[in-house]
Design brief:
Helices cover 58% and strands 0% of the residues. By secondary structure, it is mainly alpha-helical. It folds into 2 domains: 3-114; 121-179, no CATH class. The longest helix is centred in the middle third of the chain and has 19 residues, at 57-75. It starts with a helix and ends in a 6-residue tail after the last helix.
């Protein structure tokens, strides 16, 4: 069976698989009962991954905002914070973009410049450290928790991440590799 035929015949399986390997128990630790299952179901079934294709950052962010609100509702009042919903979506979309099969099936190649870096304490601390080195510490808010992350704070982190990534000649989504992935265990 060819690559494209397999991917087309197993889209649903691939989406569930990607949701399970992207959003794990440590990702949602301390966020409440049922959050992991609810996020997997939303990402694999309810979320319109193909609907994230966009030609401008503005239209991508508008789609991401709508998806964030929908995931917040799916997670419920106690667990559905903006910060957690946005983090889970950004991880999932990034990992779908990194997946050869899902990226090809959903034609996600064009959204790379618009993808956000998934924020968590490791990435936020890395961005704050980079801002300090550049003498721009005041540009970023103090990191509290993912549950306490508000939209305006997220926007400030993403704006700085875009500028930092540009100096490194890549898109901000890839900062996760160096800021989160390179941390000391």
């Amino acid at each position: 069976m060819s690559f494209n035929r397999f991917a087309a015949n197993h889209r649903s399986d691939l989406r569930y698989y990607q949701a399970r390997i992207s959003v794990t128990q440590p990702t949602v630790r301390g966020q409440g009962r049922g959050v992991l299952a609810a996020s997997h179901h939303f990402l694999a079934v309810d979320f319109q991954l193909g609907g994230m294709r966009a030609t401008t950052e503005r239209s991508y962010i508008q789609r991401l905002d709508r998806a964030t609100e929908a995931l917040q509702r799916a997670l419920g009042r106690t667990s559905g914070s903006f910060g957690l919903a946005r983090k889970l979506l950004n991880i999932y979309i990034r990992d779908c973009f990194y997946s050869r099969m899902l990226c090809s099936q959903y034609r996600l190649e064009s959204i790379e410049p618009f993808l956000e870096v998934p924020l968590d304490s490791f990435v936020a601390k890395g961005l704050i450290a980079e801002a300090e080195q550049l003498g721009q510490f005041r540009r970023l808010p103090t990191w509290r928790t993912i549950k306490g992350l508000e939209r305006e704070e997220s926007d400030r982190f993403q704006s700085f991440a875009s500028e930092l990534a540009a100096t490194r000649k890549h898109d901000r989504v890839h900062l996760d590799v160096t800021l989160w992935g390179a941390r000391k265990s």
